[in-house]
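Ticket #357: bound-state structure for pyridoxal-5'-phosphate.
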Amino acid sequence: MSHPHPRPNVLAIPPYVPGKPPAAAPGTTTFKLSSNENPYPPLPGVIEAATRAVETMNRYPDMGSSALYDALAARLGVPAGHLATATGSVALIYQVLAAFCEPGDEVVHAWRSFEAYPIAITTAAATSVPVPVTTDGRHDLAAMLAAITDRTKVVMVCTPNNPTGPAVTQAELDAFLDAVPPHVLVVVDEAYVEFVRMDDAVDGIATYRSHPNVVVFRTFSKAYGLAGFRVGYAIAGEPIAGALRAVSLPFGVSAVAQAAAVASLAAEAELLERVEELVVERARVVEALRDQGWSVPEAQGNFVWFELGERTASFAVAAEAAGITVRPFAGEGVRVSIGEVEGNDRLIAVAGEFLRG
Ligand SMILES: *Cc1c(COP(=O)(O)O)cnc(C)c1O
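RESOLUTION: The complex was predicted; output attached.
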């Protein structure tokens, strides 16, 4: 035909549904609990560092993000060469596929899991191999192992799993990694690692050190409260980290984002105090929901999952009416972020009313 055609895989890319901002209802406070954001404002040092960086907007950012690499290397106790920063860890998902997958190669991942996975996999013209999570929202690592074929290049392990909530244990991950062929790259997506409070939690750093086929993804978007600035990073051995840097968009992470991330690492104690408050709120919400009769899967991120099937849309409408915006997954369930205390209270109230009918 007489016009340019994108590659067929481009037409097959599923849409990303962003968490909606709350509809403004006059006279009422609304709460956006749809995108797993940190509800707290940035710490003062972060705003000042970002503001200083704003003044350099006529210049390209430091392409090597050297201050950020140095700060991360010091914080994590890893060589800077084992790191790759990117515009959010979503960008790292694209980069890992660009660096490791030929068209048609298979990528195994849990499902329902992070909705960016099938989008990025389809974009890369790779083949998505979704493996259903268990009825309690956990990764079925045995089934994921069984799904690995000769064509498998990458396996995504999302822990804690967005949107269902549970995290894998180190013992589960170790057993899985022992069985995965060494040429298959295993991504451990730890976007919510700071919120994990469990026995035998995964130690991503120790895991990448002992496994040359493991890459850990982390982000400043969730616990660190910098979702709007787009900064994520990968931790892996030099060959993997180097490949991720090689395929990155030049000058992707802005100077403002670099400065804010470095300042956030410097203010880590205060930031993690706020994370602890969210963890306490999470426990309060989960307990209240279970008391009401909901079977909420183990929540290790900053969100809770309601498996609702056909009632998904009506729950989202009820939440909206109560001034909280949630993230519905049509026909499956609703994910609700842990936010401000008042927003969480409204969630508990709405959930209780919903059960009563
Ligand atoms: C939010 C999220 C990310 C990444 O977010 P960025 O803002 O792109 O860093 C990655 N993985 C999972 C599972 C997430 O929920």
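RESOLUTION NOTES: The longest helix spans residues 268-292.
TICKET STATUS: resolved
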